[in-house]
Amino acid sequence: MGAGLTFVGSAFVPSWSSVTILLAYLGYLAIAGSVLPGKLVAGAVLSDGSRIIYRCNGLLSLSLLVVLLGLGVGLNFISLSVIADSGPALLSTTLVFSILVSLILHVVGCKSRHKGSSLRPHVTGNFIHDWNKKLKTSLIRKYKFVLLRKRQPSFEMYRITWFGIQLNPHVLGVDLKFFFVRAGMMGWLLLNLSILLKSSQTRSLNLAMMLYQLFCALYTIDYFVYEEYMTSTWDIIAERLGFMLVFGDLVWIPFTFSIQGWWLSENKVEMNKWEALANGLVFVVGYCIFRGANKQKHDFKKNPTAPIWGAPPKVIGGKLLASGYWGVSRHCNYLGDLLLALSFSLPCGAISIIPYFYPIYLFVLLVWRERRDEARCSQKYKETWAEYCRLVPWRIFPYVY
Ligand code: NDP
User: Fold this and answer.
1) Which of 178, 297, 315, 345 to mutate to test the pocket of ligand 1 (most atoms within 8 A of CB)?
2) Which of 173, 226, 317, 349 lies 20 to 30 A from 327 at CA?
């Protein structure tokens, strides 16, 4: 028992190979992201009127990486299954890296003298308190943060958290928030590919594993096809870059979203063709809602008169879309994402709850996020938002919630 635990524990110790894999991967992404061509997309208008320009070349970066890895494998330079083989060590290495990056971001953010929305410090500089949960105004006064509030009228006193200091920190022209989420999504796909290769080597490849792999691959590739839509999402517009996002992007996305793959490589699940068809249907319906809703909002922001489902859009106060998916529920895109998450776990059957970690986590996250977004929108759009809520009463699930 003791020896077993020591063995498992030692697998989590960062190794030179895990450090090399992580640094080579991030180095590649930084270079590819900076030099490869891609559509230049202007982000949302920030509170100081500025806009960040994002180079959306994720799909090209991914395609080139897959070609390079294929060449490396073909020439026997590397083995793709090394990623799955070093899974635990890679996980701990990435965790340590995320902590280091968050600490650096914290220090740099506190020292920042910038006045612009992207780089000015949005918090106090007290490390413990900035990592803590909500601080009440009284507590803030106690720690003399009032001075800071006077200098920064838009400073959100009630949300001093572990969310980070600066909105859009960047290094050598690379926007770190956009970079980390790209690294996480691509990392998830690469981990999955490595698990797939390993299961074909160990002969554990079956229909369930292939369906899981297919759905996740379509989802991640779709993310990069529509990468520009990311520029109008909550994470990019509203979240500061701190431990929550760095850890979430680099560790949480690749290592927890792939639990089903790890699980299927250890557990055999037989699916019949009807189960596979039903699973495929959940994926397709989820995808149509998820992509359709996000696309409608994106198109509406670009052109508020563009037709929705073939008819002129219903618009409230000239700003909020209230037809199409956005007339069904106020966050129909979350509903689509939840169905997709479920479709990634259904190939694992009903033997264990472990492979359902992702849909359960996503449910909690999106319900929490919807509440936060609701508060933000109600503050931003005031009576217009109240009118939208009257017209579209459902938050996520029509007739349920
Ligand atoms: P949204 O894309 O829904 O963005 C919310 C913003 O959209 C609001 O703050 C508001 O911003 C604008 N908005 C809201 N309602 C309307 C409306 N009726 N008309 C026009 N604009 C509106 O949320 P997220 O950024 O959270 O999510 C984006 C996608 O990413 C979702 O599909 C979600 O499921 C997915 N996601 C996936 C996660 C995962 O772990 N798999 C995690 C988080 C998100 P504004 O002020 O600009 O008007």
Assistant:
1) 297
2) 226
